[in-house]
Amino acid sequence: MKLVLIVAFSFILGNALAQSNNGPIKKSMILFTQQSGATTFNYGKYKADGVFWGHMPNSSIESDRAMDQWVENVENRTSDGKYHFGRGEFDWGWKWMIDFMDDPESYWAKDLNGNNINWTNNRYKGHTHSWQSHHGPDFLAWLKYQVDRMTLAPVTHMMFDSQTSATRTVHWLAGDFSIHSMNGFRAYMKEKYSVQELRAMGINDINSFNYRRFLLDRGFTARTYRNRAISIEGNIPLYKDFVYFQRQSLNEVMEELFAYVDTIRPGIAVGATTNLIEPRGFVFSDRMTYLAGEYGHPHDAATSPPFEPILHYKAAESLDKTLIYFPYPDAFKALQDRDAPRQSRAWIAQAYAMGSIFTIPGTVWVGSGTWNTGWKNHADIYELVHDHSELFDDYSAVSNVAMAYSVYASLLVRGMQGSAKANETLAYLMKENISFDLKIFGDPDRPIAPTKEELEPYDVIVHDSDIQYLTEEQNKIINANGSKVVSVENPNGIASLLSWKIDVLREGEVRNELISALPRASKDKAAPYVLHLINRKYNPSIDNAQTHRGISVKIPSTVFNSTTIEGAKLHLPGKASVDLSFKIESGIMTLDIGTFEDCWGIVEFDHTLSNDDVSIDSESISLYPNPANKYVTIKNASTREISSVEVYNVEGKRIMSNQVNSNTLNLNISALAKGVYIVKINSISGGTAIKKLIKN
């Protein structure tokens, strides 16, 4: 049976309820970056769900008076169902640490010369704001204390800004050679290596080993160490182990912290600032509900939106976790200096189009103060997300190419943007409109990799010269895919293997570099197909996207099964949606866009269910009573659980949809008019059953 599907405004019971705080972060969530922008007026304009940077007071969180005021503020902000993410801190909470620690001086990260690694020149109680070391017993106690104070308020989610731990000083600021770090590294090396192995490394007595003294004795200084820290191995003795030690210790701290959180607020959604594309500060915990990021973000006008953040978006999607993201202050500071707030519109669009959340830049921290970008510059972008939230949640990329990514190779750069070669490969794929998924290959200390079976569905597995840094076992996985493995240096070889490819044309000429076409599909096969169009060209003279005329998009039928597509509608920020004309010839759909002058457009394809999408299992699933008046019970006679139920009228319009987690469901049909309906029942195993329902 074929059911005609059109735009899904879901009149279901579940969608009327707010998202559970313990559940996954929806990809359509809209969050203010910080509290200062979250006014009543702005909530209405941006259609926001809550505040992401929900800081406690900058100092004196030990003061009940100060905390009472903050708690009252959070209570007011969450009283109407809005979200408030409590934020635990490393660097921003440096004053909290000084108040808490008996000996804060021992918790500053030290460079190889033994000096504190300063963060700013600000001072508090006689201490200069310096970079914190996450080592030592009181550091975890301090983080737990933050949880104690934070949970005085009804925070709905938690996030810990952990990226400014000692894992970062390893390559940014000449290492963490504090006493707590040295003691921890000694214990790490003693546990990992035998006496003979240690001696071969030059460590004759592990019980007295001090890595700082070890390097100084070999002629290193803070300067030479820092200059060589952009390395993989060999430039600094024991450097690789030092990197892995810092990461392991951070993960141990965070796991204990998450466990502590669950003793106070069991199951609350928890995230941390972690970087999936380089090995230094990666937090591995499965306890994290979502990922948080604050990374470098290129901001030149010639390449906007930039390609570099896409590595982060793709890495998050590979783990099936939503990334909540905002750039470092320098990105918006550059826009402030140029008075170009609208350049960031495409930044926001690109993030949401790839399954991540870009928090609202209403009020932005730009390093030396804040900048109010003005609601008129971005509110329509977020309103577009809000009005079409059903086209974001549960959607993922439709791809026929896998990009093999070596985490280890990112040790060749000082920042968190991934290896230079990987970014070149990604830029090539994006400019060609080749839809791809990122497949992460971990470093030798944690050699995670996709399985051979996970790679089999792809037409091509693209790699670059970073493949040299894969382990022997990882190379076996790659090579097991034979001729499908192609270097990015062989574009003709890639093109020859593609079973499909989307092309953007201007006046009939392929111009993929102008607009990125990003196909996405829902886990629900009955949901609309989606194609995001991201305008890659920005006009600085008018602070807006460039205008492209005569735009069309060619989409092979195998991308979405175009033979089932019944209609296409283009949704634009701040404008009415428009129906698009298209034609299908020789298995290619040509979609007529016309003039495209916005930073972002979302094409929604209505389609029928193909025969492959529908399976009928009358013996295992039944409706009772049938005919029914007010309630109908859906019974699953097998051991399979029902995941969702959808109701269609005889014209094929979906009029009800409900997510469920039970073998029996009572469906309220009292609001339905009398008549005949089709009930589509989906199981968690992927099967479906179609039933006819008569409403009295």
Structural features, described:
The protein is α/β, with parallel strands linked by helices and 696 residues long. It has an 8-stranded parallel beta sheet with strand order 1-2-3-6-7-8-9-10. Strands 13-20-21-29-25-26 form a 6-stranded antiparallel beta sheet. Strands 19-18-24-28-27 form a 5-stranded antiparallel beta sheet. Helix 6 (179-192) packs across helix 10 (239-264). The protein is built from 19 helices and 36 strands. Strand 8 (290-293), helix 11 (309-318) and strand 9 form a beta-alpha-beta unit. Among the domains are: 19-172 and 247-392, Alpha-Beta Barrel (TIM Barrel), CATH 3.20.20.80; 398-497, 3-Layer(aba) Sandwich (Rossmann fold); 615-695, Immunoglobulin-like (Sandwich).
What would CATH call the class of one domain?
Answer: Alpha Beta
Q: Describe the biggest sheet?
A: 8 strands, parallel
The percent of residues in helical segments reads 25-40%
By CATH, the topology of one domain is TIM Barrel
- The general outline is globular
Poorly predicted regions are 1-21
Query: If classified by CATH, what would the architecture of one domain be?
Result: Alpha-Beta Barrel
What percent strand? 25-35%
